[in-house]
Amino acid sequence: MFRKAAVPAVSNGSYLQGQANGKLSSMDSGQRAQEGKVVLKKKVTLLRGISIIIGTIIGAGIFISPKGILKNTGSVGMSLTVWTVCGILSLFGALCYAELGTCIKKSGGHYTYILEAFGPLPAFVRVWVELLIIRPAATAVISLAFGRYILEPFFMQCEIPEVAIKLITAVGITLVMVLNSTSVSWSARIQMFLTFCKLVAILIIVVPGVIQLIKGETQHFKNAFAGNDASVMGLPLAFYSGMYAYSGWFYLNFVTEEVENPEKNIPLAICISMIIVTVGYVLTNVAYFTTISAGELLLSKAVAVTFAERLMGSFSLAVPVFVALSCFGSMNGGIFAVSRMFFVASREGHLPEILSMIHVRKHTPLPAVIVLHPLTMIMLFNGDLYSLLNFLSFARWLFIGLVVAGLIYLRYKRPDMPRPFKVPLFIPALFSFTCLFMVALSLYSDPVNTGIGFAITLTGIPAYYLFIVWDNKPKWFKKLLGRVTITLQILLEVIPAEEDQKP
User: Fold this and answer.
1) Greatest CA span in the chain, whole angstroms?
2) CB count in 10 Å sphere of residue 477
3) What burial class does residue 183 get, using C-beta atoms within 10 Å of its C-beta: 0-12 exposed, 13-18 middle, 19+ buried?
4) Which pLDDT band holds residue 65 (cuts at 50, 70, 90)?
5) Which residues, 6+ apart, have CB-to-CB distance to 448 below 8 Å?
6) Most CB atoms closer than 10 Å: which of 43, 179, 355, 466?
7) Hey, which residues does 18 pair with through a beta bridge?
C-alpha cells in the first residue's frame, strides 16, 4: 500500500544517532550498549503472549462486581447465555486481529491497522485520544482498584482513607512503569506469574462451585430463565457489559514485532487465551450461583468475598490479595502493550520522535513507557476518571469496528497480501456490526456523555493539521524542540532503533 510518509511532528530530525559500538555520541565512553543491534528484541514467546492477553482481560470485575449482565438480563439462565455469547463474539474479534497481526507484521495494534487501511488522519486521531485521555484514565481506574484491595486486609474494621488509596496507587503505577522501563524479560515473567495467580483465584472459586453442584446445590438454577424479563434496552446493555468484561484480547497485536514466530504464535495465543477466559468466566458465574442467589449477588459489594465467606470461612481474607494481584497484572500488561502503540506512532511521525527511541543497554522503549506516568498521575489526583471513561467508551468500539472493517477493505484493496491466517468473511462482518451496534447503543443510552466524548475525539483533527500537516513551523520552534530531544536522549540514554531492523 502506498501512502504519503508522515511528517515528524516535533523536530527537524536533529537527534543523536547511535554509534557502531552502541554508544550515544555525546556520552561517556564507559557507557556501552548490549552486544548486537539496539532494537526491541523478540522476547514474547507463545506462553508470554497468552499471559499478556489473559492477564489484561481478567481484572477485578469478575471477582468484585460481575452483576452488570445479571441486572440487565433479569435471570440466571439468560445471564449465563450472555456471558457465553459475549465470549464467542470477543473470540471472533480476536480472530480478526489474528489475521491482521499475521499479515501486517508491525506493532501498534489499532493504530497500525487503521493507518494501513485508511491512512494517517484517523490513525492519528486514535493515538491522540489514547495518549491524552483513554490510557491515563483507564490505567488510573484499574490502579485505584489495586490500591484499594492491597490495603483491604489492613483496614478490615474501618473505611480505607482515600489519601492512603491514592498514595499506594501512585506507588503501584510507578512500580509498573519502572518494571517496563527496566526489562522486557522481567516484565513478561512477572506478567506470567500474575496471570497464574489470576487463574488460581478463578480455580479457588470454580472448584468449590463444582463440588457444590455435585452435592446437588442447584436450587438457584431451577427455572433459570424465569424472573424479570429483560427490557428492550436491558439486553443490549447486558451485551455491552459483557463485551467490556472481555476487552483486552487485542493487546498482543500491540507488540507484534516482539513476538517470536508471529504467524504461528499470535493466532495460537489468541485462541487459547479466549477459550480459557470464556470458560473461566462462565464457570465462575456458575460457581457463584451454586451458593448465592441472583438477588444476593446483585446486593453484594464483593461477590467473590461473599462466596468465599460462605464456603471457606477465614480463607476469604485472601480474596482481596488475589484481586490486588489481578489488578496489578492488568496494569502491567496494559502499559507493556500500549507503550508500543506510542512507540510505533512516533516512528511514523505522529508523536514526538523521542518516543520512538530505545534504551541503549536495556533495549526497552523507555520514553514511550514513562510518557504515561505524569499523565496518569494527573488523572489520579485531579481527574474525574469515571466521567472521562464514560465520555470515551464509545471511542473504543468505534475504532475497533473501524479496524475490523479495515480487514474487509484490505481483502479487496490488497487481495495479494500474504495472509498466513485467514478468517471467513462472515466473522469480521458480524463483529464490525457488533461494534457499530455498541456505538449506537452508547448514543442512545447516554447521548450527553457520548456527545462530549465525540467532541473530545474530534479535537484530534485540528491537532493533526497543526502538528503533522503544517510543516512550516518557525525555525526557533524547531530548534528548541531539537534541543529538547537531544537533552532527553542524553538523560534517558536512548537512541533511534537500527534502520535495517525496522519492519
Assistant:
1) 78
2) 12
3) middle
4) low
5) none
6) 355
7) 24
Q: Is 47 helix (H, G, I), strand (E, B) or coil?
A: helix
Give the alpha-carbon dihedral of 291, 296, 302, 307, to 10 degrees.
-10
Residue 22 contacts residue 32 (beta carbons within 8 Å): yes
* Non-local CB neighbours of 357 within 8 Å, separated by 6+ positions: 15, 365, 366, 367, 489, 492, 494, 495, 496, 497
Q: What stretches of 58-75 show up as alpha helix (H) in DSSP?
A: 61-64, 68-73
Alpha-carbon separation of residue 381 from 144, 345, 374 (angstroms): 11, 28, 11
And the C-alpha cell for 409? Answer: 477493505
Beta strands in 222-348 (DSSP E): none
pLDDT at 215: 85
What single DSSP character describes residue 95? H
- Structure confidence by residue, pLDDT tens digits, 35-49: 457 677 788 889 999
pLDDT tens digits for 142-166?
A: 888 888 888 888 887 778 888 898 9
Give the single-character DSSP code of 503: -
With left for phi above 0 and alpha for psi between -120 and 50, is residue 260 left, alpha or beta?
A: beta
Place of cell 485462541: 271
C-alpha cell at 74: 433479569
Give the model's confidence band at 33: pLDDT under 50 very low, under 70 low, under 90 confident, else very high. Answer: very low
The secondary structure of residue 18, as a DSSP letter, is B
Residue in the block written with cell 442447584:
218
DSSP conformational letter for 494: E
Question: The pTM is what?
Answer: 0.85
Which amino acid belongs to residue 367? Answer: P
| CA atoms of 322 and 179, how far apart (whole Å) | 20
